[in-house]
Q: What sequence folds into this?
């Protein structure tokens, strides 16, 4: 990869709005993504909102995990959770690229008990799955949910140590370094799903500033057979990128399957439990209560990228 000289300061962070039908996206936005010198501080805002990069719903409460350029674990400082956003500081003491990540893993699904289909409770994990399913339950259907929300911050020259993968969920392998993006060159990224190239993943790209303009300028792309996608940028600024797959039900014996994955933050289907598998009209099955196929594992990846003028 070819890297440019680090910038003294990052461009201004833009706000973003989204249509009301696609709501409650989560994000982290750093005050700077590239800095120079041996010792710097960066402040990060973290929230879940209707209007991206604008505080209008609730804070992102989780404390992120920091990976330093040498691969060791760092820490966030001054973590504060407010009414609409959380903030924290990151002290940069090493040269290279830092990763700040919030990773959520869980299990969702359903089971039959006393003639009724019930959803697994929120907070179910592989560790407590056995206790979440009551005795006597039948027709148990489960799938994993792995979501990552990551940002990258570079002090000095960009490095690649923090991109070591775990083989779980969707992970970013840069072809273009995420702190080396300019408007006149497309950014190319590879996404792995469970350690293998994630072919056919949905990639949504939205630039900042929509709150102050009429058009969303959203791009919806697909990864190729190698899990790669090339993104063409518009104006300089901050961009929200989401990669996702799964979460919907397939076609069941009764023919009541749903058509495909729902957009991030879209309202649940009628009869569906919030955060759980979708259900069609008439209850936990398809239309008229007919059974639906098993849920698919749900994996997602979110990052905020800064694109600069050349």
A:
């Amino acid at each position: 990869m070819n890297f440019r000289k680090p910038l003294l300061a990052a461009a201004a962070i833009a706000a973003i709005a989204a249509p009301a039908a696609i709501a409650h996206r989560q994000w982290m936005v750093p005050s700077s993504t590239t800095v120079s010198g041996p010792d710097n501080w960066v402040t990060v805002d973290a929230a879940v909102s209707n209007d991206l990069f604008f505080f209008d719903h609730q804070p992102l409460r989780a404390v992120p995990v920091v990976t330093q350029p040498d691969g060791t674990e760092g820490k966030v400082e001054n973590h504060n959770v407010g009414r609409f956003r959380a903030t924290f500081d990151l002290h940069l003491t090493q040269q290279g690229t830092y990763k700040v990540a919030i990773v959520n893993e869980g299990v969702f699904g359903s089971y039959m008990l006393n003639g009724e289909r019930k959803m697994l409770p929120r907070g179910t994990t592989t560790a407590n799955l056995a206790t979440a399913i009551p005795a006597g339950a039948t027709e148990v259907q489960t799938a994993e949910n792995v979501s990552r929300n990551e940002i990258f911050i570079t002090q000095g020259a960009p490095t690649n140590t923090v991109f070591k993968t775990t083989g779980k969920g969707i992970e970013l392998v840069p072809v273009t370094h995420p702190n080396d993006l300019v408007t006149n060159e497309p950014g190319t990224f590879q996404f792995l799903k469970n350690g293998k190239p994630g072919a056919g993943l949905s990639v949504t790209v939205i630039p900042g500033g929509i709150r102050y303009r009429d058009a969303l300028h959203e791009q919806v792309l697909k990864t190729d057979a190698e899990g790669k996608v090339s993104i063409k940028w518009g104006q300089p600024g901050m961009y929200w990128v989401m990669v996702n797959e799964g979460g919907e039900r397939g076609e069941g014996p009764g023919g009541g399957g749903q058509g495909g994955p729902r957009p991030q933050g879209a309202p649940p289907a009628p009869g569906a439990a919030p955060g759980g598998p979708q259900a069609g009209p008439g209850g936990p099955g398809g239309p008229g209560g007919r059974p639906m196929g098993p849920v698919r594992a749900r994996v997602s990846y979110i990052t905020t990228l800064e694109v600069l003028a050349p």
